[in-house]
Amino acid sequence: MSEPGVPQRFLELAAAAMAPQQLSDxxxxxxxxxxxxxxxxxxxxxxxxxxxxxxxxxxxxxxxxEVQAVPVTIDPPGEDAASLVVxxxxxxxxxxxxxxxxxxxxxxxxxxxxxxxxxxxxxxxWAAEMAAGGAPSVPAGARKGVAPVPxxxxxxxxxxxxxxxxxxxxxxxxxxxxxxxxxxxxxxELLKGSLPDLPALxxxxxxxxxxxxxxLRGSAPVAPGQVEAVAKVTGLSVEAIAATVRPLPPALxxxxxxxxxxxxxxxxxxRLSVSEEDARLTGGYEAFALAARETGxxxxxxxxRLRQFMRGEDLAGSGA
Length: 320
What we know:
The protein has 320 residues and is an alpha+beta fold. The protein folds into three domains: 8-171, Roll (SH3 type barrels), CATH 2.30.30.110; 187-243, 434 Repressor (Amino-terminal Domain) (Orthogonal Bundle), CATH 1.10.260; 250-318, no CATH class. The protein is 44% helix and 15% strand. It has helices at 6-17, 20-23, 25-32, 121-131, 154-170, 187-191, 198-205, 209-217, 227-234, 238-242, 250-256, 262-272, 276-295, 302-318; strands at residues 44-50, 53-62, 66-73, 83-86, 97-100, 105-108, 112-118, 142-144. Strand 1 and strand 2 form a beta hairpin. The chain is elongated and about 70 Å long. The chain starts with 5 loop residues before the first helix and ends with a helix. The mean pLDDT is 86.
């Protein structure tokens, strides 16, 4: 399951068997709208992916920055005693799909890529109850999975691959979020009034002098990717500078990690020739700094501010 094309192959297999219009780009757009308009909901089946890891997951419940979900497989076939095999007539896939309720757990929203289907409440309820250790009645149009025979057969290999993929997705770094009222020492306080070489610092950071001054005054944050450059120019240790990195407001982190912005972060990564993780990290801090300059001490509407920032990103990418 770890090859990046596998869940796409799932969709292609299902589309070849039945209802290709529902799984095509046009079909997904008609059913779920544009990615930036998507609303997460229990019962949705998403493609979750990051770098070389990719799989399908059924959402059971929502939390602030993650979803409770179970993996879903179509091909290769597999099942176990804690799974539900759903008939193709009950999904957009058109072929049997296995819901691995025994592998239920949290999935970060930041790895959700695209919603591909929406399932009925009885299927979701079965998976949730089974994951909680219950013994729910099997819904119509489905059957309970059976333990693989022999024990070390193909189904065990599928389950092991799923466990590895889930572990990899849960390990994807998130944005640093502020917790409680812990005070962060500003760069200005650390320098104790001694200004560094401003032109050198601006060159190292790729920023104008006014932007550098905002960082020194503490009105704009030192971003994680700027730590080494600031340490080199100021002569302070990397550890000391790293301690001045201000975590982002939780509401901004929640907004930035929502899958509605996944394509936007990828476009930014491509434009800047950086990884998706770096694109989201630097973009999060740029949106934070922009809002700080425009709102003063008031708590911004972070979702609105992020949309404003993304509109500027799209203009930059278009060369306008």
